[in-house]
Amino acid sequence: MNIEVINSIKLIDYEESMKILEKRVLDVSLGIKNELLWILEHNSVYTAGTSSKNIDLLDKKIKVIKTNRGGKHTYHGPGQKIVYFVLNLNKRKRDIRQLVNNLERCIIETLKEYSIASYRDNKNIGIWVGDKKNSKKIAAIGIRVKKWIAYHGFSLNINNDLTKYNSIIPCGIEDKGVTSLEQMGITNYQNINKIITKKFLSFFP
Fold it and tell me: Which domain holds residue 168?
């Protein structure tokens, strides 16, 4: 299947990206546009997914945008790769668990290119690094499926400001931290978009 790949250079406003994503979902469902892989970075923003709870908002003064993806509160900002997609599961396997599994494998394989060992956690969605007792999240996943069109995607921390997470309990998980490629000592991440694209298209040909 043909997946259109877009790499945005400029920072993209979150709400604007949602309008574009929702329009592509409609176009894909009508068969008038190809599926999409869109890699970008957002302006600084906090978002709350469909299972978010107000108790996870530590700083009540920050602006939070409600979104229809799964998951709880998270932060997006410069230095974090956002990987959005629109995939038509009517023409693929109608298996959401397999979809998430492939996304997890895509992220794990991407990080392997930087000699980072990462893993999934059965209790907490996302991709983690470090030992199980002191694990830190490096990638978050949040998806939505509408009429078997899957969209939204995942975020991967590259060199973003991790102090921004102090205003929330990220994804509602209190006892674990967050990290980034840069915090792990990786600085040669300039080709990250190409690697993400290659891995993604290998799992979703």
Answer: 3-203
Q: Looking at 40, 106, 127, 171, which residue is catalytic? A: 171
Secondary structure of residue 194 in the 3-state scheme = helix
Structure tokens at 91: 């023409």
Long-range contact set of residues 91-98: C-beta below 8 Å, sequence gap at least 24: 91/1, 92/1, 92/204, 94/148, 96/143, 96/145, 96/150
The domain that contains 11 carries what CATH number? 3.30.930.10
Residues 151-169 pLDDT 10s: 999 999 999 999 988 877 6
32 touches 14 (CB < 8 A): no
Let me know if 171 is a catalytic residue.
Answer: yes
**What is the reported pTM?**
0.92
Interatomic CA distance for residues 161 and 180, integer angstroms: 9
